[in-house]
């Protein structure tokens, strides 16, 4: 079967759209990234017909379970467990498969720049590609109002290929990542089902070992990875990069990323101030290990006074300047992870009761073969086998203001005995 056609989405005024949902007004930060509509115009070949679907997807609370089925992907049910008066007051079903048009784009060391589209409904696209089932597979999943053409996706892909001879697959769901935010959150469930179907096809028809699969998702992409993981037994690892807070924090485990979605789930929190304070990311632990650099709320270098927009615009372009303006803390998790891939400096994090205690030097012990300390980033999986069965382990670290963000910190303590104190006082 030929790949499903895509579609361009109409984009009403973002402010008009999000005025319906005050909880997610802050996500407008990503709107200033240029290029997503242009990208969709290039990617798709027909005019938008999504208006009808968007109009049909008005918020509602079901009186009973509501179910929709999506061809070979399976069925989706909305129950009352998917609703909460404060955390998730509205819900809709996803847009159609044709509108979201999820695609899987492969890059390897043999084709580092020109991607190859893989389609589970057309095995020739897989057989004729450079996909090697014997090699580990890394899957990158973008978030709200983002595309595979974003600078960070390209940079992460490049650094991963530099690190290892791996299959790098980017999940393209740009057709479903546009506002409304409520609609985008609903679309993540269907994208997760598409990804699960694709991976299960690779497992059953090409011998892929799910333990060799590592999904890396940012914001809504982190929860998308969770939806895929729950449908693919034995997934090796999911890394959540500042998972989105609105409509996920405080909800049951099946609504969001959680430790049951893979053998090892590690999460980096960088923007957990709460959506009411314009924080986009979760502060709630949702992995086997949860890293909180700089307490997981405000990151050094994200203050506008420290990082002027005009200077960033000159250095790194419009896309990065827009991120600094409205989503710097949220995207800093991406930067830390990318920096960790090939950096000789390790982001050493320490288990502690609180960030204040960490900064007071109470948690710097790091015994060999223990989980008192772990490296944040790509190398976190090296510690997975030694983890206890408990989940939600909090680890803290600090970073610098600019690249390279990784820094070495030392805590030196002095212990005085009564004899040394006597000697000291005798000498004065």
From TrEMBL:
Record localization: Secreted
Domain Lipase: 69-405
SUPFAM superfamilies found in the cross-reference section: alpha/beta-Hydrolases
GO CC annotation: extracellular space
InterPro entries the UniProt entry points to: AB_hydrolase_fold (IPR029058), Lipase (IPR013818), Lipase_LIPH (IPR016272), Lipase_N (IPR033906), Lipase_panc (IPR002331), TAG_lipase (IPR000734)
List of catalytic residues: 219, 242, 330
GO terms under biological process: lipid catabolic process
GO MF terms, alphabetically ordered: metal ion binding; serine hydrolase activity; triacylglycerol lipase activity
Keywords linked to the UniProt accession: Calcium, Disulfide bond, Metal-binding, Secreted
Keyword field contains Glycosyltransferase: no
Binding site for Ca(2+): 256, 258, 261
Family: Belongs to the AB hydrolase superfamily. Lipase family.
Name this protein carries in UniProt: Lipase domain-containing protein
Organism this protein belongs to: Cloeon dipterum
């Amino acid at each position: 079967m030929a790949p499903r056609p895509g579609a361009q989405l109409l984009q009403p005024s973002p402010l008009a759209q999000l005025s319906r949902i005050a909880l997610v007004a802050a996500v407008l930060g990503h709107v200033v990234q240029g290029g997503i509509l242009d990208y969709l115009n290039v990617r798709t070949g027909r005019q938008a017909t999504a208006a009808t679907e968007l109009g049909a997807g008005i918020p509602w609370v079901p009186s009973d379970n509501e179910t929709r089925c999506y061809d070979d992907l399976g069925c989706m049910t909305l129950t009352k467990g998917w609703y909460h008066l404060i955390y998730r007051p509205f819900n809709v079903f996803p847009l159609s498969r044709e509108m979201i048009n999820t695609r899987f784009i492969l890059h390897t060391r043999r084709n580092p720049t020109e991607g190859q589209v893989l389609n589970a409904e057309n095995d020739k696209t897989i057989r004729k590609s450079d996909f090697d089932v014997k090699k580990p597979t890394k899957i990158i999943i973008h978030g709200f109002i983002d595309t595979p053409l974003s600078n960070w996706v390209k940079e992460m892909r490049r650094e991963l290929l530099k690190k290892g001879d791996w299959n790098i697959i980017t999940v393209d769901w740009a057709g479903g990542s546009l506002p409304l935010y409520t609609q985008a959150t609903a679309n993540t469930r269907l994208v997760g089902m598409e990804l699960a179907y694709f991976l299960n096809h690779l497992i059953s028809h090409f011998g892929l070992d799910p333990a060799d699969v590592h999904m890396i998702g940012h914001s809504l992409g982190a929860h998308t990875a969770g939806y895929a993981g729950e449908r693919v037994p034995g997934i090796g690892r999911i890394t959540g990069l500042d998972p989105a807070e609105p409509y996920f924090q405080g909800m049951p485990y099946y609504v969001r990323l959680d430790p049951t979605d893979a053998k090892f789930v590690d999460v980096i929190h960088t923007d957990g101030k709460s959506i009411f304070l314009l924080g986009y990311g979760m502060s709630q632990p949702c992995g086997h290990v949860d890293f909180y650099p700089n307490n997981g709320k405000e990151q050094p270098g994200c203050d506008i006074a420290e990082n002027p927009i005009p200077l960033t615009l000159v250095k790194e372009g419009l896309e990065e300047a827009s991120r600094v303006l409205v989503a710097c803390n949220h995207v800093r998790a991406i930067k830390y992870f990318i920096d960790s891939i090939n950096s000789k400096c390790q982001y050493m994090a320490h288990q502690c009761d609180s960030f204040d205690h960490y900064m007071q030097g109470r948690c710097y012990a790091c015994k060999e073969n223990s989980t008192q300390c772990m490296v944040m980033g790509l190398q976190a999986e090296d510690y997975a086998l030694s983890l206890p069965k408990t989940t939600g382990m909090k680890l803290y670290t600090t970073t610098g203001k600019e690249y390279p963000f990784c820094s070495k910190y030392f805590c030196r303590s002095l212990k005085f005995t009564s004899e040394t104190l006597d000697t000291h006082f005798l000498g004065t």
